[in-house]
């Protein structure tokens, strides 16, 4: 009987990377749950957490849907659907570009700005609570962010290499 092939042993760095991917995925889901809970508490259940986060990330910018996609934050059909819904609900204003009539520029309406402010206040409360608890001190969050930006650059290069 031939023994089954075994996976090569993994070193600690690879294990830590794989664990960080799982933590990152859980953190994103928890972030969406926190936004959902906040909006339910405020009686704004017409928005999904993804839509509220899209509004928050749009902020004061005026961009095209393509620009949102190119920022790497949203999938193509997802962003189109959510933008359409947000326009229908009155959170976004859209208009055709003067230069390129195929392109539509979007920006927040006053109602969209209210949503942005609600999410910003939620994030500020969390940041203050985390700061007071000392969670952000060891390792310093700035070092963690630097590391994630390096991972982001690596992943971006991997995608560029494919195409």
Automatic annotation (TrEMBL):
Tagged with keyword GTP-binding: no
Pfam families found in the cross-reference section: HTH_27
Alphabetized UniProt keyword annotations: DNA-binding, Transcription, Transcription regulation
Keyword Transcription regulation: yes
Gene Ontology BP, a term: response to stress
Boundaries of every HTH marR-type domain copy: 17-153
Protein name: MarR family transcriptional regulator
Gene name of the record: mucS
